[in-house]
Structures are given as structure tokens and as C-alpha cells.
Amino acid sequence: MKPDCIVHVIDDDEAVRESLAFLLLASGYTARTYSSADEFLSILDQIAHGCVVTDIRMPGMDGLDLVSHLQDIRPVLPVIVITGHADVPLAVQAMKAGARDFIEKPFDDHSILEAVASALQSGDEISAGRTPAHVVRQRIAVLTNRERQVLRGLVDGQSNKAIARELEISPRTIEIYRANLMTKMDARTLSELVRMALVAGEQLAYPSTPPSLT
């Protein structure tokens, strides 16, 4: 097994750690498990390659703080954040802080393995696998005004309910707009949608041409 195929799993739930380790081992990876971010950081100087899969909510240092810390001292180590539905705003913050991806619970085997495979690629391959910025901007250019508003809310880390309150529409309508965004942006997951929006940068915040009002 190549050293860059090591996956470091951090979760305070032993059952989750062991389940993920079993899946990763069965898929050909080397898996190492830790019950806390502090335990992982205590041996960080021994780690040169691989990726990290961490829960967002843990006793002591949480997943968000871990992402920020690793960006400061080991930015080449990609991090995938595991999050519950209510923690998606925190996961978005983690992506802004430098996380490679986030996976919502309950997740299927394919989702986590795909995220790990992507994270373990080299920097050039990761860049090649992402949608180019000019393509993202073209997709955003055809969004309606309301769709842009919903997308901005998601990128700001807001929940569906919070976006619904701000726009004075129902949470169910927000779900419909989110589904439309996924289709128009050609995003398979919410984390991919958020990543695209972050790539678009200022165009999302200040569109050059007024979009439609629908």
C-alpha cells in the first residue's frame, strides 16, 4: 500500500470509526482511527501523506477548528468533514476554512469512497477534476435572481429554514430551488455546489448583469 493511500478517521463514536475503517480496508486503503482531534494531532509530526476524514462535532477540538489548524500547519493534508443535517452550515464554514469536501449523514459507501479517492489525488489531478472557474461562472450567469439568493444563503452557511425566513418563502420552496440549483450547476452533492460557488467568487456576490426576477 502506498503511503499516500492512508486515511485518518477521527470520530468520538467508536462504532462509526470501526465501520469506516472496515469499509476503507475492504476498498484497499490503509485506515488509522482516532477518538479525538487531539489524539490525531499528537502524532501529526509522524504523518506526511494521506487524507483525513473527521466528524464535525467532537469533544475538545471540533472538526471545524481542526480544519483551520491543519490549514495553518499542514495545508497539503486534505480533510473531508462528516456532518449531520443540522451541521451543514458548520460544514460550509469548514470548506471556506480549507476542507476538501463534506459528507452528510447518513452517507452511503459510494459517497465516502468517492470523496476519499478524490482527496487522495495529487494537486494537479484535483485541479483537473474540478469544474473550471469560467464554466462555473457561465452556469451562475443563467440562474434566476431567486436561485442566486438561495445559493448565496447556502454559501453563507445558512440552513434551509434560515434562508426561507430571510426570503419570506417556505422551507419546502427552498428545497425546490436547491434541487434546481443542483441541476443547473451540474452538481452531484451539496458540497460540490458550495465549492463551485466559492470558485465563482465575486460574480456570485455582485453579478455583472441583472438576472431574471423569477
TrEMBL record:
Record's keyword terms, sorted: DNA-binding, Phosphoprotein, Plasmid, Transcription, Transcription regulation, Two-component regulatory system
Top-level lineage group: Bacteria
Pfam name, any one: GerE
CDD domains: LuxR_C_like, REC_FixJ
Annotated GO biological process: phosphorelay signal transduction system; regulation of DNA-templated transcription
MF GO annotations: DNA binding
Name by which UniProt lists this protein: Transcriptional regulatory protein FixJ
Species this protein is from: Komagataeibacter saccharivorans
Upper taxonomic lineage: Bacteria, Pseudomonadati, Pseudomonadota, Alphaproteobacteria, Acetobacterales
